Amino acid sequence: MESSKLISWLGTDADRWETASIDPSGDNGFVATGFQAGMDPEPYQVFYTLDVRPGFIHGQLTVKATGNGWHRELVLRRDESGAWTWQALAEGECQLPAPGAPRELEAELEGALDCDLGLSPLTNLMPVRRANLHTDPGTCDVMVAWVAVPELSLHAAPQRYEHLRRHDSGSAVRFTALDTGFTADLELDADGLVLTYPGLARRARST
Q1: Minimal CA–CA distance to 42: which of 96, 118, 117?
Q2: Residue 100: pLDDT above 90?
Q3: Are 148 and 167 in contact (CB under 8 A)?
Q4: 65 near 72, Cβ under 8 Å?
Q5: Is the pLDDT of residue 206 over 60?
């Protein structure tokens, strides 16, 4: 990405809206600030800041989620040595799982370079761009730190990205969740950002 972008996505599987402001920083890094609102499993709002280091490698994700009578926060960091750490906060009463994860997850995330913010098309950008799958044939298997939304629980999730084709407006890349077998063919713009994520979201367009 050579310039800042402001992008919105609409949920296609549920009532959901997300807007992200993406600003390039350094050599293939960026800082994004975003907002997501949804109704499932109950009404919620999520605010996040994502700092991605040069090479499209995760630096820090700060997420705040709010619903009726509850508030949660998660700060997820990966330091330059590759170690993952996090802090989680929960206030109020709700029926959602607890935020964060047991410290044993640190070992599962060893070697991981990416976070994946649940229900957000934004974080697919990182492995796609790092492996140049938006322009070149190839396949990339990754382990990600997956943040469930809106509960902000944290999990290790193996994923695969495979370049399918290029087209006039960008490219198509197949996403596979290797632990569940879920597959979706993502339509991407020229920067590798999601235009259409079947079963999840599509880019909102001005008329």
Answers
A1: 96
A2: yes
A3: no
A4: yes
A5: no
Distance CA 58, CA 145 (A): 10
Determine contact, residues 102/135, Cβ cutoff 8 Å.
Answer: no
Does this model's pTM top 0.90? My answer is yes
Please say whether the dihedral angle defined by the alpha carbons of residues 28, 29, 35 and 41, taken in this order, is positive or negative. positive
The secondary element (H helix, E strand) that includes residue 61 is strand 57-67
C-alpha separations of 205 from 7, 85, 143, 190 in Å: 9, 37, 32, 16
pLDDT tens-digit series, residues 157-189? 999 999 999 988 899 999 999 999 999 999 999
Kindly state the tokens that stand for 186. Answer: 């993502």
Q: Which residues contact 102 (CB under 8 A, 6 or more apart)?
A: none
**Element spanning 128, H or E:** helix 125-130
Structural tokens at position 179? 């632990």
With b for 16 or more beta-carbon neighbours within 10 A and e for fewer, the 81-119 pattern comes to eeebebebebeeebebeebbbeeeeeebbeebbbbbbbb
Cα distance between residue 164 and residue 162, in whole Å: 6
pLDDT more than 70, % of the chain:
99
